[in-house]
Design a protein that fits this description.
82% helix, single chain, mainly alpha, 158 residues
Length: 158
């Protein structure tokens, strides 16, 4: 009888230990889920606060790179245009060099590096409109992904 009671006691102790382990694992998982939700909420709030400044910085940096590339391109193009005008003895407003200058002024408005032009002054497609479209599409995709995540987290009815 003593061996049977000892085996029963040992079996009960093991079951209790297993149940406590399961409970701790569930508590840990729930705590981790809550922490993640809190971090996501706090993270999105802080991102909403800094986003306007961060966006301005990112847009400015992108425009700087575009402007730098344009400057390098115009530098080479203007030298070539000047040499052609010199060889062909072109003069006046319709020289290749003046066309490069006109193109440079147009791209200056299109890039709008320092936001000195409003949308009415920017004819056609501008860097600002392209970046706004890209931002809108990214936001759209993020919202769809968030909706998918939210719908997959909901418990299914059994």
């Amino acid at each position: 009888m003593d061996n049977q009671e000892a085996d029963d006691q040992e079996s009960n102790d093991q079951e209790r230990d297993d149940q406590e382990t399961d409970n701790h694992e569930k508590d840990d998982q729930e705590s981790e889920n809550q922490d993640t939700k809190t971090l996501e909420h706090d993270g999105s709030e802080s991102m909403e606060k800094i986003w306007p400044q961060l966006r301005t910085l990112l847009v400015f940096q992108i425009k700087l790179y575009i402007d730098a590339f344009r400057d390098l391109f115009l530098s080479a193009l203007s030298l070539g245009a000047f040499i052609i005008d010199l060889v062909q003895q072109n003069t006046g407003e319709n020289t290749y060099f003046n066309r490069v200058l006109k193109f440079g002024r147009k791209t200056e408005v299109t890039i709008n590096l320092f936001n000195q032009y409003n949308r009415d002054e920017q004819s056609g497609t501008s860097v600002d409109s392209i970046l706004q479209e890209v931002e809108d599409r990214i936001k759209e995709q993020a919202e769809r992904a968030r909706e998918r995540d939210d719908s997959s987290e909901k418990p299914e009815d059994s």
